[in-house]
Amino acid sequence: MSTDDTLTDGRRRTVLKSIGAAGLVGLAGCTGDGNGNGGNGNGDDGNGNGDDGNGNGDDGNGNGDDGNGNGDDEGERIAWHAGGTGGTYYPLSNEFKTTVEENTPHTLQVQSTGASVENVGSLESGDADFAMIQNDIAYFARNGESLDVFEGAPVENLRGVATLYPETIHIVINPDSEISTLSDLEGATVNTGDLGSGTQVNALQILDTVGITTDDFTEQNDGFDGAADQLRDGDIDAAFVVGGWPVGAIADLAETADIEILNIDDETRQDLLDGAQWFAEDTIPAGTYGDIDEDVNTISVQAMIATREEYDADIVEEVTAAIFDNTDSLSIKTDFINVDTAQDGMSIELHEGAARYFE
Fold first, then answer.
1. What is the spatial distance between Cα 339 and Cα 265, in angstroms, rounded to a whole number?
2. 135-143 and 198-209 helices cross at what angle (nearest 10)?
3. DSSP state, 90?
4. CB count, 10 Å around CB of 3?
5. What's the CA gap between 16 and 324, in Å, rounded?
6. Sign of the Cα pseudo-torsion (152, 155, 161, 164, in order)
7. What are the distances in angstroms from CA 290 to CA 168, 195, 203, 254, 258?
């Protein structure tokens, strides 16, 4: 490797490490979902690491002095990075937390994050042990392509555990914007998701397919909850939201405001499928959100659980078994999460521990 290549690789890994460690709050605007006091991850009253949190404090559920039995000598404290609180990753990860803690000696510390790209950085740096990511982002990261942060510098330690469910791409429209096709988004104000998230990646890919670049519209970057507020307040014309339906932020918005979800016509959808192997046809059923009483044709990627190569194979096997031997304990995406389909769409090599379970 040349000196220039070494410097470039080092800078890129520093960026990924900083994304994984600190998230994208500095870029996306502090939302309180991850690291602030009262947030969902690391604050004093948060869900993960604070004194009154759910995992690791003195009164926590797993590892503290008054925990539920998983003391320092009985189990590992597992760092599990999810996504924004308004999507599907976060509540589903908390269901995994319950299942794993009931069936193993380990404790899951679930943290709200900016999701896929940030989570890859957290796995690479060792800040996360498991993470939720999209299968397309996993492929880009492992193969070092398509995204600037990964281009020419594959994430060598990224490993797969299981695929879970289709992550449906919702293009939510402000009814007053008179947008009826993807091409109508030219000149509009569009929230493409958190900076660096899988949602933003998908949004820009989709817009590029119809000839719209970032020079052709006003881009806003916020998570699902923030996008819902922007739509409710009339601050944006449209928002991309990627998650298994029903996405909580959209469902809540539909209860208080009129919304539309863009139906992608057959020709455009085929162009999208031809241009990216990780996309699949998908449909949002009528009645999923508010007064939307017709099926909405769209596309999807796949949600998956990932880990890092160096993480203990026995723990990976135990966590995988706890989840997939007890899928009847889940209430989210239950039609999709099962052992028979857990390798469908797997885009990277499996971790040794996951391979033991599924083989």
1. 34
2. 90
3. H
4. 7
5. 31
6. negative
7. 17, 28, 24, 5, 8
pLDDT digits (tens, 9 = 90+) for 9-63: 443 444 444 443 333 332 232 333 333 333 333 333 333 333 443 434 334 343 3
Cα–Cα distance between 246 and 235 in angstroms, integer?
23
Domain ranges of the chain: 3-165+303-358, 168-301
Q: Is 168-301 a domain of CATH 3.40.1160.10?
A: no
Write out pLDDT tens, residues 154-181.
999 999 999 999 999 999 999 999 999 9
Domains 3-165+303-358 and 168-301 fall in the same CATH topology = yes
Q: Which residues contact 80 (CB under 8 A, 6 or more apart)?
A: 93, 96, 97, 108, 109, 110, 111, 128, 129, 130, 131
d(C-alpha 259, C-alpha 254), whole Å: 6
Q: Tell me the helix, strand and coil percentages in the chain, rounded to 5.
A: 35, 20, 45
Q: Please give the Cα distance from 274 to 301 (Å, whole number).
A: 14
Q: What is the pLDDT of residue 244?
A: 87
| Tens digit of each residue's pLDDT (9 = 90 or more) over 210-250 | 999 999 999 999 999 999 999 999 999 999 999 889 999 99
Reference 195, options 220, 218, 221; nearest CA is: 221
Task: Choose the CATH number for 3-165+303-358 among 3.40.50.1110, 3.40.50.10490, 3.40.190.10, 3.40.190.150.
Answer: 3.40.190.10
